[in-house]
């Protein structure tokens, strides 16, 4: 549970206790059963609110597809699984490092380029992010379907996740090389096209036509641009 969530729950508990005491005193003249009924209603309502807050912050909830829109959402999902405890902690830490690296690289590239102009480099940056996040979704799927009672399946899932992380690492390395090239050539980005083509081909070569049973879809972008010349 996040520290912010813990603080919110503590504040709510204090407020709820104060409200219960206040209502109990205000209803002092009322019959005892009436006071107890109000007290029970306050406690029941507060417990419901607390449960909803905790549930909304759980790993299973924040990992739902409708909650995963951008890089920060995936970071939040991995953080939630890390807090709840999982044998995939080492892989989650690696995925978080990759997502943090992706965010920094995106910021760096956009700081170098003029975002008001249509650039193949920015288009490729979007493709890289799509690829990385799709792979992170596949990792989350494996973490969610893992059955702790079936220890033998851990090796299978771990090997799969490690392969995904390796693919992400390769793409991030090529992406970094592209950014370095763009940063060194000024306004004329023609010299960086070989790096752009290499990154595009790396993404294309990692496409898998088969559908993973735990994902239901291919992890890589289907609209990768053709290499530029």
Structure at a glance:
Helices cover 71% and strands 0% of the residues.
Describe the structure.
The protein is mainly α. The chain folds into two domains: 3-57; 63-205, no CATH class. It is built from eight helices and no strands. The longest helix is centred in the last third of the chain and has 33 residues, at 152-184. The protein is elongated and about 85 Å long. It starts with a helix and ends in a 24-residue tail after the last helix.
Report, as a whole number of angstroms, the end-to-end distance. Answer: 50 Å
Q: Main sheet?
A: none
- What class do helices, strands and sheet pairing give? mainly alpha
Helix content: over 70%
Strand fraction equals under 5%
Q: Mean pLDDT, as a whole number?
A: 76
Helix and strand succession?
HHHHHHHH
User: How many domains?
Assistant: 2
Global outline = elongated
So how many helices? Answer: 8
Which blocks of ≥5 consecutive residues have pLDDT under 50? Answer: 216-229
| Computed Rg | 25 Å
Write down how many β-strands occur, each being a DSSP E stretch of 2 or more residues. 0
